[in-house]
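Predict structure. Chain length: 153.
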Amino acid sequence: MFPTIPEFFIPFIFVLAVVYGSLQVAGIFKNKAVNLIIAIVFAFFAASTGFVSEFIYSIFPYAVLLFIIFFFLALVKKSILGRVGKGGPPDWTMWIVLAVLILLLLAAGQEFINDIISPLGISGESLLWIVGFIVIIGIFYMAYAMAHPKAAP
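Prediction complete.
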């Protein structure tokens, strides 16, 4: 039995994007049309096979999380380290945004943090207070550095 449209569409697009991107990065075939045709064939095969579709649906939440992490790291590298590596001043705005995101992740994942550090004998709440305090001090320093670029290193 052929899968329904949502059951077919999501694995198809996912496999198409991954295979096409891999072929582009690998540079095996220089022609983009050849890469697209190969990716479409792989995507149709994967989406029409029940086992592959089930496997993709089972790993999809983890793959999405991994892609979000990679995109976030690429954004940080490009926007923060890109300017510093070229001899320019640090992009303090991006550092502040990163610090606020760290605070949000710490606040949202308190149960997860408790599970990880409970063998160390430290309470998750204590660790969150310490890390949060350090991050807030860092935010104040970065705001000061933005306002007084000559005074801050």
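Summary: The chain has a mean pLDDT of 77.
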